[in-house]
């Protein structure tokens, strides 16, 4: 049975707190795991969340500030210690190659797993698999930063009432799906379009063109909201978003489930982030993330908004 869910390992911004670890997010997408922004302490949080090194197939780093990348050393070494039986691919801004190298080889260990480095230096497609296309978009932060987006291929949903109307049953159902037609009946006659699911991961950034492009039509959007709206000046200065800004992006992009995260240590609780997101007009499903949370990707929608 396929599983699509986000496992939140950490939700703090620059400084961890008693209740919030540095960043870390694992997206389970069918049989694959994509680890985003492993900050300091990620290996420990994986243990607490029941995430194994074997679950990681791909690592995506948005940028090389410590709260998004210092955990790379431990995670990479754990992948090798546990002899993960499949290759792992790492994406990160090419301008941060020297930081990646230092973290990958921070201490001595035995390399047992093939780790492919696939740096990002422009907007575009990074990978195609049978279940998704992975893309990157440039964001606006004091250091080079990219957001990531997964798009499932579009498909078709078989309609039982249409099958019955044409008298198609048993093995012929599979045949018309494989061949596209059966005795003058086309696949289009007995099915309807099924838009692929979409997920986006947007970390440290000001508002810029890349943010709505990544968010457009997403079933699940994970986005930073470091500051509350009254500190919008600080957000702009340091290259971040407020809760209201993130929510307006989600509202305008038609996001179904919004996950706010990456909170400044200056704020004591999540309630005001939720209030400001709702005040900004976002009416979809809303989660103010906390460590060790699991968020399922919403079931497929009939939404046919234009994809990225």
Short synopsis of the structure:
The chain has helices at 42-49, 66-69, 72-81, 97-104, 160-165, 171-179, 210-215, 232-238, 243-253, 271-279, and strands at residues 4-10, 24-29, 32-36, 58-60, 88-91, 115-117, 124-128, 133-138, 146-151, 155-158, 181-182, 185-186, 191-194, 198-202, 220-224, 257-261, 285-288, 294-296. The chain is α/β, with parallel strands linked by helices and 308 residues long.
Explained architecture:
By secondary structure, this protein is α/β, with parallel strands linked by helices. 25% of the residues lie in helices and 26% in strands. It is built from ten helices and 18 strands. The chain has helices spanning 42-49, 66-69, 72-81, 97-104, 160-165, 171-179, 210-215, 232-238, 243-253, 271-279, and strands at residues 4-10, 24-29, 32-36, 58-60, 88-91, 115-117, 124-128, 133-138, 146-151, 155-158, 181-182, 185-186, 191-194, 198-202, 220-224, 257-261, 285-288, 294-296. The chain has a seven-stranded mixed sheet. It has a seven-stranded mixed sheet with strand order 7-8-9-14-15-16-17. Strand 11 (181-182) and strand 12 form a beta hairpin. Helix 3 packs across helix 4 (97-104) and helix 9 (243-253) crosses helix 10 (271-279). The protein is globular and about 65 Å long. The two termini are 28 Å apart. 44% of the residues are buried. Residues 303-308 have low confidence and may be disordered.
């Amino acid at each position: 049975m396929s599983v699509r869910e986000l496992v939140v390992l950490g939700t703090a911004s620059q400084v961890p707190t008693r209740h919030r670890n540095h960043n870390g997010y694992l997206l389970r997408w069918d049989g694959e795991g994509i680890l985003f922004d492993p900050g300091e302490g990620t290996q420990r949080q994986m243990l607490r969340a029941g995430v194994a090194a074997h679950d990681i197939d791909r690592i995506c780093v948005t940028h090389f500030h410590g709260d998004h990348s210092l955990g790379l050393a431990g995670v990479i070494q754990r992948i090798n210690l546990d002899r993960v039986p499949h290759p792992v691919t790492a994406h990160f801004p090419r301008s941060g190659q020297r930081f990646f190298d230092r973290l990958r080889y921070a201490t001595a260990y035995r390399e047992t797993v093939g780790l492919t480095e696939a740096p990002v230096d422009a907007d575009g497609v990074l990978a195609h698999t049978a279940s998704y296309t992975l893309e990157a978009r440039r964001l606006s932060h004091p250091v080079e930063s990219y957001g990531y987006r997964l798009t499932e291929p579009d498909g078709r949903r078989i309609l039982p009432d249409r099958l019955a109307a044409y008298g198609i049953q048993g093995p012929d159902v599979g045949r018309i799906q494989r061949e596209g037609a059966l005795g003058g009946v086309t696949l289009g006659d007995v099915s309807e379009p099924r838009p692929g699911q979409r997920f986006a991961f947007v970390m440290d950034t000001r508002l810029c063109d890349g943010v709505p492009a990544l968010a457009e039509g997403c079933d699940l959007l994970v986005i930073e909201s470091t500051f509350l709206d009254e500190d919008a000046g600080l957000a702009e200065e340091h290259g971040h978003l407020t809760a209201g800004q993130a929510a307006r992006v989600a509202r305008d992009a038609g996001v179904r489930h919004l996950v706010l995260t990456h909170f400044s240590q200056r704020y004591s609780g999540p309630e005001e982030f939720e209030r400001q997101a709702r005040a900004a007009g976002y009416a979809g499903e809303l989660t103010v993330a906390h460590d060790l949370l699991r968020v399922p990707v919403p079931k497929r929608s009939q939404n046919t908004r234009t994809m990225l």
